[in-house]
Amino acid sequence: MLKSEMTLEQLNQYLAEKASSIRTAFKIRDYYRANQQLLELIQVVPRHQNVLCDLAITEMRLGHYQVAYDYLQRAIQYHPHAVEINTYDAMCEVCYFLKDSQQQQYYGRLANQAKKDQVKDEPKIALLTSEAPVFDRNQVLENIISYSLFGDSPRYCEGAVLNVKFAQKIFPEWTCRFYIDETVPQQVVIRLQALGAQIIYVNAQQKQISGLFWRFFVMDDPKVKRFLVRDADSFLSYKEKAAIEDWISSKRYFHCMHDAYDHVELLLAGMFAGCTGVFENIAQDIQQFLHRDRYLIERVMDQHYLRYCIWPTAQQSILIHDSQGYDSKGIIFPLKTLEYDDGFYIGRIEANKKVKVHHDFKITDTVGWRLRDQHHQIICEYDVKELKEKYFYLMLSKLYTDHLESGNWYIETYKK
């Protein structure tokens, strides 16, 4: 049956089925399948902005940047007075890949302002008219770098261990804290504690909330005065430390950073900081937010919470460091340095190297692996969850894979 011959009910059913199929493909990152579904759908609704934007995103993920740009231009041309935020976000990203820095910044600014406009009427929890409390460098247990940690992936677990080591050198006035559950291997917990990190196991009620949010619980801890909320798989740096010192000197309550092309959110979940005593009952507030179903995509729902529930209050007293020029009130970073490697920026995912490990075990065997250094000392050790082939993959930090590639370190497998 031709689409033109469908009844309204049949058309709505067709659109609903397509939308469901496309969401499933996006969830498993099958962008080719999503692209094919969207190409069919665009024939039915050729001017639909969200369809054009989703189609552009699939083309972008497939490396077809100019095609993606053209779809987004159509979306904007068809809806010049009602451009969706996601369209601006996607346009900012595709302009980066097209190496058009001027348009990248232009659309990044539009995305940033559109998000501010979206939440301008959201309630403010408090009026921040005074200066922020004085920062006490001697009270290291009152100054917390807060992380969520769950699961046994070395991407996050080793990132956590490395960050505690970095904090000892770069942030000696701060204490790393990890909100965790029982899925974190005990040997990782022991290593973190031995380095001086705080470990807080979330309770049964808190477990009902996604682990993405656990690190936010620090915001209403009465024992804490200041907090940095960070990602376990991004590395602390001296560039970041200089920005934090800038924030402390500003005497403002909150701080956020934008340091890469895709940092277009008002408050990035792993790149904001603040003073306690402003927000109360954070866990309950998060649950209410999730109940209202205001987030768009599950993997970034923590950032949507920050946009709707934290930004309206925080923006009254906030210092913004912005190397991209997206925020009209942003200032440049006080320190410009390419730590770790030439592509470094604050908030970068550091466990971005995939390592293929071969083994000689049966698929039914229980297998573990160890990373050893040039002196045969164990750096880390984990179990393999499930064997499907005669090899498995690991996601490890470049700090580890550089040693592996040079031949100084090696991975051994063993039957448990």
Could you characterize what this model shows?
The protein has 416 residues and is α/β, with parallel strands linked by helices. The chain folds into 3 domains: 3-118, Serine Threonine Protein Phosphatase 5, Tetratricopeptide repeat, CATH 1.25.40.10; 140-322, Alpha-Beta Complex (Spore Coat Polysaccharide Biosynthesis Protein SpsA, Chain A); 353-415. It has 12 helices and 12 strands. The strands form 3 sheets. Strands 3-2-1-4-6-5-7 form a 7-stranded mixed sheet, with helices on one face. A 3-stranded antiparallel sheet has the order 10-9-12, with no helix packed on it. It has a two-stranded antiparallel ribbon with strand order 8-11. α7 links the parallel β1 (143-149) and β2 (175-180). α1 (8-27) runs antiparallel to α2, α2 (31-44) packs antiparallel against α3 (49-61) and α5 (85-97) packs antiparallel against α6. It is globular and about 70 Å long.
What are the salient characteristics of this protein?
416 residues, alpha/beta, Serine Threonine Protein Phosphatase 5, Tetratricopeptide repeat, Spore Coat Polysaccharide Biosynthesis Protein SpsA, Chain A, seven-stranded mixed sheet, three-stranded antiparallel sheet, 12 helices, 12 strands
Write the layout of secondary structure elements.
Blueprint: H1 8-27, H2 31-44, H3 49-61, H4 65-78, H5 85-97, H6 101-118, E1 143-149, H7 154-170, E2 175-180, H8 186-194, E3 198-201, E4 226-230, H9 238-250, E5 254-258, E6 271-275, H10 282-291, H11 301-314, E7 318-322, E8 353-358, E9 367-372, E10 378-383, E11 391-396, H12 398-406, E12 410-415
Parallel strand pairs: 1-2, 1-4, 2-3, 5-7
Antiparallel strand pairs: 4-6, 5-6, 8-11, 9-10, 9-12
Helix pairs in contact: 1-2, 2-3, 3-4, 3-5, 4-5, 5-6
